[in-house]
């Protein structure tokens, strides 16, 4: 029997679940996830941080809209953490440039030490700080959006890889048994592969692997109130998480879409760089993982109808900011799909349309 939907969303990470929730009162939606549970890939492996100046200027606009939307609709999701960037060298000009790019204010290393007592003053030459950096409770956000979907009748199918896509005159037929007017491609690292399955041109969305380790560190200092610590040379970042620290080597390794895992060399390098800027040593790595950050060539998200087939809708290229842009991205998707005057603006929408990548 053919199951019929207005919209089939392929991929249930933060992109898929947020657009399904957004449209759930307006359409009959089927949400299809290849894995046994939702948010198995990038969306369960992030650092869960919100930095409003992270990403290019287009992305920053999405960050701000998402921030305001989160504050008003889901006030429990963001918790203030703060950020300190640490610099080994005395090169003032370079550090100032870096600090400005993230909206940080320069502070003395002693002030930095007050805010983050684990910092090693022997290696830290310069520091910069920003208060309005937040933890995102990504699990709570996904579960909240999932509940919203279910209460508005969205059907979520796990263990349901879409591996065949056919086009009739005006419908998509998925896996020979699902019919839908519109297909939303929210398949993360697999976005280009899904387009090719539908006989459409890829948009050169490239996955990059990023790794993370959960570590115990040798300190009597309380960890929970530490800010996010970042190496200004982009060689590591770390933050407290559930009683321990998570440390990333900030690796950017291009790869094919896959169920990513961390390489020990990358983890070791990240921990080495972290240890070189803090007093305590890492006692133990308790777990490690990696996820894929998938970028379009210009590093802006790809949101909108495919230029060759308007009923194939891209919601991809979330890169390293899929959570902090999610509500703005789903808002743009809703505005375009409902063909209404935008809640955002036409100028903003145009920045993300897939036809820029022809
Ligand atoms: C280490 C790391 C740190 C990060 N830190 C942050 C951060 O601090 N802040 C932030 O905002 N972002 C961060 N990100 C980025 C963020 O995690 C991603 O941008 C976001 O999770 C992407 O969401 P997505 O839904 O597009 O992809 P995914 O979560 O990967 O979801 C795509 C889903 O599609 C499914 N799928 C693919 N093909 C098919 C198919 N044919 N049929 C059915 N299902 C299919 C996949 O199984 C997958 O579950 C980080 C990422 C990593 C890896």
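-> sequence recovered:
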């Amino acid at each position: 029997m053919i199951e019929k939907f207005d919209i089939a969303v392929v991929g249930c990470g933060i992109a898929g679940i947020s657009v399904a929730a957004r449209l759930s009162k307006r359409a009959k939606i089927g949400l299809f996830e290849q894995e046994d549970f939702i948010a198995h890939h990038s969306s369960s492996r992030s650092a869960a941080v919100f930095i409003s100046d992270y990403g290019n200027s287009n992305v920053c606009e999405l960050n701000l809209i998402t921030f305001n939307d989160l504050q008003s609709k889901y006030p429990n999701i963001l918790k203030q953490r703060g950020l300190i960037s640490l610099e080994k060298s005395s090169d003032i000009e370079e550090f100032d440039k870096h600090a400005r790019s993230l909206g940080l204010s320069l502070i003395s290393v002693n002030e930095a030490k007050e805010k983050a007592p684990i910092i090693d003053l022997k290696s830290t030459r310069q520091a910069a700080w920003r208060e309005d950096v937040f933890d995102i409770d990504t699990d709570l956000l996904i579960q909240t959006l999932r509940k919203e979907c279910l209460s508005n009748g969205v059907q979520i199918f796990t263990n349901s890889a879409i591996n065949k896509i056919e086009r009739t005159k005006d419908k998509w037929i998925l896996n020979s048994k699902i019919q839908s007017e519109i297909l939303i491609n929210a398949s993360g690292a697999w976005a280009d592969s899904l387009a090719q399955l539908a006989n459409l041109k890829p948009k050169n969305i490239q996955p990059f692997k990023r790794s993370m380790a959960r570590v115990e560190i040798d300190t009597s200092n309380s960890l929970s109130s530490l800010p996010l610590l970042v190496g200004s040379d982009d060689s590591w970042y770390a933050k407290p998480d559930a009683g321990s620290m998570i440390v990333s080597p900030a690796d950017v390794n291009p790869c094919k879409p896959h169920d990513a895992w961390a390489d020990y060399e990358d983890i070791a390098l990240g921990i080495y760089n972290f240890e070189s800027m803090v007093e305590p040593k890492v006692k133990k790595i308790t777990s490690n993982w990696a996820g894929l950050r998938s970028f379009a060539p210009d590093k802006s998200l790809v949101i909108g109808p495919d230029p060759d087939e308007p009923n194939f809708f891209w919601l991809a290229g979330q890169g390293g900011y899929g959570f902090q842009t999610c509500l703005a991205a789903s808002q743009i998707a809703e505005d375009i799909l409902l063909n209404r005057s935008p809640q955002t603006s036409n100028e903003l929408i145009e920045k993300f349309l897939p036809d820029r990548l022809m």
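The first strand starts at residue 3 and ends at 10.
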